[in-house]
Amino acid sequence: MILNIPTSLSEVSVDQWMALQATDDPIKHVSILCNVPEDVVRNIEAKSMDRVSVVLSDLDAPAKSKWPLVPKLTIGDALYAVLPNISELSVGEFADLETACQDVATDPRRFLSILYRRVVEDHKTLYRIAEYTGFEPVEPMGQVPVSAFYGLLDFFLTIGTTFTKASLQSLKEEQEASSLKSGAGMQSSIISPMARR
Q1: What mean pLDDT is predicted for residues 122-140?
Q2: Helix (H, G, I), strand (E, B), or coil: what is residue 4?
Q3: CA distances to 9, 65, 93, 139 from 49, in Å
Q4: Engineered SS bond to 23: which of 28, 35, 43, 136, CB 3.0-4.6 Å?
């Protein structure tokens, strides 16, 4: 039997990734990655196991690689795309993302369903996605390649970090400006009459 061994994380789905997280059994890992029954895995050559180990190590240490954002992807017969403008998140999207981020390490499908939505109009680089309802199906997101998930997560976390730094810098500048206006922190050149005595 010929095994189809994934050579990169673009060939591993989120559903497979979630199944891999649920077990430490190397036989099950190979079964999941290669989509074959466990009894077939028990009879494969050892060199095939070495190739699977490379993919598993990439899954275990995603921070070692750069994961580019995949703005559009096809799942089944449908085209999905990332929100065109993250700064225009609705209150519902933001609140649901906050909740989804708590579970992203065990089940990223909800996170993905909020940020990747079905394309309703596509004009090469410009596109329009379906409006957010809060009830987007999570099942199709199980077919998203892990590399696309890592790319979106990296993008989202980078934006969050940048926003946090910018907010802190802005707050610091506002406090400094407020301090200067109120005179706080400035040395007084006027000596009170009580201090002269």
Answers
A1: 93
A2: coil
A3: 16, 22, 42, 30
A4: 28
Does residue 89 have a pLDDT over 90? Answer: no
CA distance 33 to 5: 7
CA-based nearest residue to 181, from 173, 170, 189: 173
User: Pick from 17, 46, 64: which residue ends a domain?
Assistant: 64
SS3 61: coil
pTM of the model: 0.76
72: left (phi over 0), alpha (psi -120 to 50) or beta: beta
Yes or no: say if 148 and 70 are a contact pair by the CB < 8 Å rule. Answer: yes
Q: 131: domain range?
A: 72-152
CA nearest neighbour of 139 among 196, 78, 64: 78
- Determine the longest span between alpha carbons in the chain, in angstroms: 101
